[in-house]
Amino acid sequence: xxxxxxxxxxxxxxxxxxxxxxxxxxxxxxxxxxxxxxxxxxxxxxxxxxxxxxxxxxxxxxxxxxxxxxxxxxxxxxxxxxxxxxxxxxxxxxxxxxxxxxxxxxxxxxxxxxxxxxxxxxxxxxxxxxxxxxxxxxxxxxxxxxxxxxxxxxxxxxxxxxxxxxxxxxxxxxxxxxxxxxxxxxxxxxxxxxxxxxxxxxxxxxxxxxxxxxxxxxxxxxxxxxxxxxxxxxx
Length: 235
Hints:
- By secondary structure, the chain is an alpha/beta fold.
- It contains nine helices and eleven strands.
């Protein structure tokens, strides 16, 4: 494998499939089987998944929620998605375990870097739920933080688009895709790869990011094998 240890960031919205909310059984199966495929081939896998298909803390404030409470609700939404993904991976023959950033046994074990790395070495997919455990930080930032903490080779951002473009390809048909782009170029061109806190953490810790289409079956394996898929963001 080209990448032996990865942090996979998945969006909660993608888990909803064609709907706006909830969890699509088809998407859950697609993701679970792709994750099992790379784990079976020897990749050590940690996952951070968002909660936007259930609740978004920032948008919740527009409905009158206190920001801190809204973000805490968002953290719990990521736990729901993490449990669904854990169940899916275990159901289809893989091994997965949820770790939470805030104490909530028996839902999941409290996050501990050393325990996560130890589990990954045993072939267990570690799903890191609850974001950073703090309000005002996104799951993008949580994924950057965890990737650096566990010593991942790369942060893989699985989305609905197949890379980084000059503009949103779903809105602008003239948008041009980058095969690879530097962190400085992303900042200069104001390309929305991740939020600025997450992006800065990856840049300062020399953590490369690959943005790719997770909804295309087999794509995750291609990325982990080092095939040209998606967009590589690097120093």
